[in-house]
Amino acid sequence: MNNAINALIFLVATLFLVTTAWASTPVAPQAAEDITAAKPAPKRFTLPQAAGKTKVGAETTVKVKVKVAKGWKWNEQYPAKLEFTDVPAGVSLPKVKFNQLKGDFKSSKEQATVGLQISGKKTGKATLVGKMKFSVCNETSCVIEKSPVNVIVSVL
After folding, report:
1. Among candidates 44, 47, 52, which has minimal Cα distance to 130?
2. How far apart (Å, rounded) are the C-alpha atoms in residues 102 and 144?
3. Is the pLDDT of residue 130 over 80?
4. How many domains does one find in the chain?
5. Are residue 87 and residue 28 in the same domain, yes or no?
6. 127 pLDDT exceeds 50?
7. E strand intervals along the chain
8. What pTM value is reported for the model?
9. Integer angstrom CA distances of residue 136 from 3, 27, 65, 66, 146
10. Residues 57, 107: one domain?
11. Among 153, 136, 7, 138, which residue's Cα sits nearest to residue 76?
12. Is there a contact between 107 and 73 (Cβ–Cβ < 8 Å)?
């Protein structure tokens, strides 16, 4: 009889341990949740690479342009900024910081443009490297965007 009681106690304890371990095991997310999480963010703007040509000793204007995607508009009240952090020795860019609220940007609902006055100092190609921070809005919200900016200049 003792063996039967011991076997019953062992069986109940084993069932308890298995049930407890099973209940605390994390459940994998459903496939539908995985698909939703993997969706890319909607495209709110494009910033095509800007390029221009100039001669040694001459000046040219190269435009950096942001195009706003359908359903979004450029936020003219946001203090958008463009700053160049690397200007190669072959070119001259007298002004490296641009600010929308100081009139450096020309904008509409569909786009914004900054004109860069670049002079050639040495023949060759030069890539100016910078970053832009701005805001676009749709009917329900505004989003602050940050984007790298590269400007390629050929000096002849």
Report:
1. 47
2. 19
3. yes
4. 2
5. no
6. yes
7. 45-46, 50-54, 59-68, 73-74, 81-86, 91-92, 97-99, 106-107, 111-120, 124-137, 142-155
8. 0.73
9. 77, 39, 14, 11, 11
10. yes
11. 136
12. no
